[in-house]
């Protein structure tokens, strides 16, 4: 998406995309701590949230890569709330996640140690080695589209990050970190409406969903 600002700051029904996640976690779910991983140049733009939630909301700076950003947020969380056992990592470009989805994935993580929201893949997926010809068709019944939040035991995630760093492993999400430990990640079935805003069309769809919800 071509824009003059990060996509999580783009307006959705008159409010920045990021505010939907902040409202959900801070006002509705009310966890002990919320860490907002945000480039320092934008901290002042969101300082009013710190004023409103001084004992709950923290800022952390992003890393060079996604896993570095998550690790920085995790360090801030552990420093502020050392008793915390689980972390829910959420992509703020997914503003439509529901309370029920979050509660379900947290419940599964507490039972299995790690869980991620996802939906069964509806599209036919084909693999190509050269980008020109089909190599094979992957069995759709085995495929899931992964969403966030992903909820993981903090000791497990830290062990995973340590392994990833030492072995130079490539990961695309936090569930992958747990997978590299050889441990299971529970699939928590979510909603197809928990879309990630990546295109102008996604904004239109998200606005429509919010109108249907009366928000």
Net shape: globular
| Alpha carbon gap, first and last residue | 24 Å
- The proportion of strand residues reads 15-25%
Strand order of the largest sheet: 5-9-6-10
What's the count of strands?
10
Q: Whole-number average pLDDT?
A: 95
Element order: H for helix, E for strand: EEHEHEHEHEEEEHHEH
User: Structural class of the secondary elements?
Assistant: alpha/beta
Number of helices, counting only DSSP H or I runs of 4 residues or more: 7
Cα-based radius of gyration, to the nearest Å: 18 Å
Which residues sit in consecutive blocks of at least 5 with pLDDT less than 50?
none
| Largest sheet composition | 4 strands, mixed
Quaternary status: single chain
How much helix, percentage-wise, in residues? 25-40%
Would you give an account of this structure?
β1 and β2 form a beta hairpin. α5 packs across α6 (174-180). The mean pLDDT is 95. This protein has a four-stranded mixed beta sheet with strand order 5-9-6-10, with helices on both faces. It has helices at 17-29, 47-52, 66-80, 99-112, 154-167, 174-180, 200-213, and strands at residues 11-12, 15-16, 34-37, 57-60, 86-89, 114-120, 125-127, 136-138, 144-153, 186-189. The longest helix has 15 residues, at 66-80. The protein has 215 residues and is an alpha/beta fold. It contains seven helices and ten strands.
């Amino acid at each position: 998406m071509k824009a003059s600002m990060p996509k999580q700051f783009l307006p959705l029904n008159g409010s920045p995309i990021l505010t939907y996640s902040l409202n959900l976690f801070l006002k509705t779910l009310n966890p002990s701590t919320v860490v907002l991983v945000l480039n320092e140049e934008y901290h002042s733009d969101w300082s009013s949230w710190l004023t409103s939630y001084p004992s709950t909301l923290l800022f952390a700076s992003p890393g060079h890569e996604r896993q570095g950003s998550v690790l920085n947020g995790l360090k801030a969380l552990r420093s502020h709330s050392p008793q915390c056992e689980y972390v829910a990592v959420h992509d703020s470009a997914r503003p439509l996640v529901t309370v029920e989805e979050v509660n379900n994935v947290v419940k599964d993580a507490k039972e299995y140690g790690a869980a991620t929201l996802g939906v069964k893949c509806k599209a036919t997926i084909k693999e190509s080695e050269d980008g020109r010809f089909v190599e094979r068709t992957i069995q759709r019944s085995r495929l899931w589209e992964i969403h966030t939040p992903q909820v993981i035991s903090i000791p497990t995630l830290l062990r995973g990050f340590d392994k990833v760093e030492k072995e130079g492993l490539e990961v695309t999400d936090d569930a992958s970190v747990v997978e590299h430990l050889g441990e299971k990640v529970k699939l928590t079935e979510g909603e197809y409406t928990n879309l990630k805003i990546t295109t102008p069309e996604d904004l239109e769809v998200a606005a429509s969903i919010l109108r249907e919800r009366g928000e």
